[in-house]
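dumping this here so i dont lose it again. seq + smiles for NAP
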Amino acid sequence: MSFSKGFRCLGYFRNLHYRQGVVNHRFNSSYALAYEVFGEPTEVLKKVPIQTERHVKGNHVMIKYLASPINPADINTIQGVYPVKPTSFPVIGGNEGVAEVIQVGPNVKNIKLGDKVIPSGSTTGTWTTHRVLTEKDLIVLDKNIDTMFAAQIAVNPCTAYRMMQDFVKLKEGDSIIQNGGNSAVGIYVIQLAKFWNIRSINVIRDRPDLEQTKEYLKSLGADYVLTEEEIRKRELMDKIFSDISKPKLALNCVGGQCATDCVRHLDDDGTMVTYGGMSKKPVVIPTGSFIFKNHKYVGYWQTRWNMMNFNSSQRHKMLEELTELSANKKLITPKVIQVSLDEYKEAIENMQKGFSNAKYVFKFD
Ligand SMILES: NC(=O)c1ccc[n+]([C@@H]2O[C@H](COP(=O)([O-])OP(=O)(O)OC[C@H]3O[C@@H](n4cnc5c(N)ncnc54)[C@H](OP(=O)(O)O)[C@@H]3O)[C@@H](O)[C@H]2O)c1
C-alpha cells in the first residue's frame, strides 16, 4: 500500500518558526492513521507520515492534536457502513478530538495561539498529530477544560444532553430507562440525570465484573443498574416501580431483545429514542405498545443535529454548560485507556471484544 499520492514524507518539516506568535515549536514528525479503502480498521489503517504547510495562510489555522477518542462510529466509518462516507481517499480516521492552536493565518479573527479547539463538523480526520483547517472548521473551548473531557465533548456528552432535553419534558422526580448503561453516552446520561434530579434505570450486559460495574455506575448517580436478564424479572421490576415512577423516556443504543424489554417498562405515552445499534439486531416493538400505550419511537443522530445547528447559540450554550459541569466535577469522563497511534491495532481489537468498560483515546505527545 502506498500513500504517495495523498501523503508525502515529512523529512524537511523541522524547526518551525512561527511568524505571528510567540510559540516557537519544533517537531520532527507529523503522523496520521489513514486508510485508502474501506475495510476492517485493523487491516486497512496505516500509520503514515503526513505533510502540512510550513506557514499557514489566509484564514487557515494549524493545530496540534492533544487527544482523540476511538468511537464505535469511527469503526463503522472505516468499514464503509456509516451514513457519512469520505468522498476521496486516502482519508484520516477519527471524528472528534481536542487540539491546541500552534499557528494562525493573517486573516484569522477569533482564534489565537494556544487556544484549545475541537472540529466543528464531522469526519474531519482527528487521528493525526497535526492538521491545517480553516477558522470556521473549529470551535474554541474554555482554555482550562480537562483535556480528556474536551477530546470527547463533541459526541457523547452532547448526545446524552440532547436526548434528555429534546424529546420529553422531564421534570424532577421523573424517571428514564436506558440500555448500554455503561457506554460512554450512558455514563453521561446517568450523570446528567443525577444533576437534573431524574431517576435512572440502567441496563447493562451480564459480565465477570458485574458487581464492580454496578457499583461504579451507582457511584456516578445511577439509581438502578440491572442486567438484561434482570429487567425481565417481574417481581424485581414491580419492587423498583414501587420506589420510582415508570420511565417516560427510554434511550436505546443496543436494539434487539434488550430494546423490546426496555419498552415493556415504558410508561404510557412514553418515548423511546434509538441512537445506536450495538447488538446489530433490529428493534422489535410489541403491537400493543403502539395501540394501547401510545408509545412514540424516534431516532437521534448528533451529526444531523450539529448540521442543523452548526454555529447556533444553542450549540455554544450546550458546550458551555457541559464544560462547566465538567469543571465542577458534576460530569466525570468515562474511564479512559490512553494509547499512542502505534497502539491502534490492539486498542481497536480490545474495543471490538466488548466489556472493556473504558474508552480508548489516542494521546499525542
Ligand atoms: N446517534 C448518535 O448521535 C450517537 C452519538 C454517540 C454514540 N452513538 C452510538 O451509541 C453507541 C454507544 O457509543 P459509545 O461511544 O458510548 O460506546 P462505548 O463507550 O464504546 O460503549 C459501547 C457500549 O455498547 C455495549 N455493547 C457492545 N456490544 C454489545 C452487544 N452486542 N449487545 C449489547 N451491548 C453491547 C457495550 O457494553 P459492554 O461493556 O457490555 O461491551 C457498551 O455499553 C454506539 O452505537 C454509537 O455509535 C450514537
